[in-house]
Design brief:
466 residues, alpha/beta, Rossmann fold
């Protein structure tokens, strides 16, 4: 258990923050609400609405992903993942955390594995720039879309399918793997029609909770990530989150503390890793927190327009860009640090200029020591000024600890849904935007949506343009 992630919430408490913090009595007083949220969580889980919670406790998806990754090893120079949102952000975050930044540049690091390109947007300039580096015959494409109706991913599919046909001829289907719904949806139909290799997204797992399914497991395995240890770490955290003692359950405690801070006016949650490797984990968390908790109506269909706003920052870089606002600006933010105790590769700062005290003091220390000191100093500076902050302390970045972190944050998010009394598993606001896009792009059945957009944009269309 010495590799267990720890949750340090000292800097959320009145002991250090005074009136701006949470008191032990407040946490104790929220016990009834926490118990209700716990009952709600387990009821949803029993009804098949929280299937992500069981992913680490099964090896079905692990075996399927490892089998296909082994089959593909050595055959392809590049792996292109097509997806957006939950189909991409988790893979990007874990790949960035566990593989060196030079992975795509260094053959020795890859050891015969493919370069990994995750195309999570439809910017034509980027799409063309990436494809200009690739050869169709040596490229495997992993299309990820649960329903197959997401316009961005569908457009990417049509575009890269044509590119594969031009480059490989009638054998193009051998260069594509589709990760989609096990039974229904447009992409499952195309899989059957084109005889494409495929993997399954469990029907009860939403996109932003899907990185521990083949959505993330297959491309990560193909890129050399130890996905078995990743899932082992997630399962280790799963057992911890089953603890009914709230003082021993970091997922519930994090959710409860953030909920109570929200009620005190801290409507913004800043995630600030002190590690470049974990920076994109904050990117993944932004979607998880925002799309799950930002809701117009509650579970009684009452208008509440609730939800904390997630922001990402990077320590120590953003001490020099955002921290001034966080320490002296509006008291509407709570900071969540990701702190690493031991860096995988550290560097000793050389000794020089012994007579210049303002620089010589750094000699003999390491960059890891410096970054840790920056994190501790920033946390104290915030707390000293009554600014709530907490830390997830990560012993060392590894597949097991990253698996713990992913599962902890997923569970905390779902549990926070119970505290806010909203549905953390849907995204009606996103769906509304999708329908307008369908109309503007000419999809049959959505003509009224196009007309609605055009009518809306016609209002005073020239009045406020300069």
């Amino acid at each position: 258990m010495n590799n267990r992630i720890r949750f340090d919430y000292n800097n959320l408490m009145t002991d250090r923050l005074g009136a701006y913090g949470l008191s032990p009595a407040e946490l104790e007083g929220a016990g009834k609400l926490a118990a209700q949220a716990s009952q709600w969580f387990y009821a949803k889980h029993g009804a098949g609405k929280m299937d992500f919670f069981d992913l680490p406790d099964t090896d079905q998806h692990l075996k399927a992903s490892l089998k296909l990754a082994a089959k593909c090893k050595g055959k392809y120079h590049d792996l292109v993942v097509l997806g957006i949102g939950g189909s991409a952000l988790g893979t990007i975050a874990i790949h960035s955390a566990l593989n060196p930044a030079s992975y795509n540049l260094d053959k020795k690091i890859r050891q015969g594995r493919p370069r990994l390109w995750v195309l999570d947007n439809v910017d034509p300039e980027k799409l063309q720039a990436v494809l200009s580096l690739l050869k169709a015959k040596r490229t495997l494409v992993n299309l990820i879309s649960k329903s197959g109706t997401t316009a961005e991913t569908s457009a990417q599919f049509l575009w890269i399918r044509q590119w594969l046909i031009k480059g490989t001829g009638r054998d193009w289907s051998k260069n594509m793997v589709v990760t989609t719904d096990p039974a229904g949806g447009i992409m499952r139909q195309i899989v059957s029609r084109e005889k494409l290799a495929s993997l399954e997204v469990p029907s009860g797992v939403g996109g932003r909770f899907s990185v521990l399914t083949p959505v993330g497991l297959f491309p990560l395995a193909a890129a050399g990530v130890d996905i078995k240890s990743l899932l082992d770490g997630a399962n280790q955290m799963r057992k911890t989150t089953l603890n009914e003692n709230p003082w021993r359950n970091p997922a519930r405690l994090y959710a409860l503390s953030q909920y109570l801070l929200y009620q005190k006016g801290c409507r913004i949650n800043v995630m600030m890793p002190y590690s470049d490797s974990l920076y994109l984990m904050a990117d993944w968390f932004r979607q998880l927190w925002a799309e799950s908790l930002g809701k117009r109506v509650d579970n009684q269909n009452q208008t509440v327009e609730t939800g904390p706003t997630p922001i990402k920052a990077l320590g120590a870089t953003d001490q020099h860009s955002q921290l001034q606002l966080y320490i002296e600006g509006p008291r509407d933010k709570a900071i969540t640090f990701l702190m690493v105790e031991k860096f995988r590769n550290d560097i000793i700062i050389p000794r020089a200029y012994p007579k210049i005290a303002d620089i010589s003091y750094l000699g003999g220390k390491t960059f890891g020591q410096l970054l840790t000191a920056e994190a501790r100093a920033t946390a104290m500076a915030l707390a000293k000024n009554g600014r709530p902050n907490c830390s997830f302390i990560i012993p060392e970045i590894s597949p097991r600890t990253v698996g713990q972190l992913v599962f902890l944050l997923e569970t905390a998010t779902a549990y926070a849904g119970g505290l806010f009394d909203i549905n953390p598993m849907d995204q009606p606001g996103v769906e509304e935007g999708k329908r307008y896009t369908y109309g503007l792009m000419g999809r049959a059945g959505f003509e009224n949506r196009k007309a609605e957009v055009e009518k809306f944009e016609a209002r005073n269309s020239k009045k406020y343009i300069v």
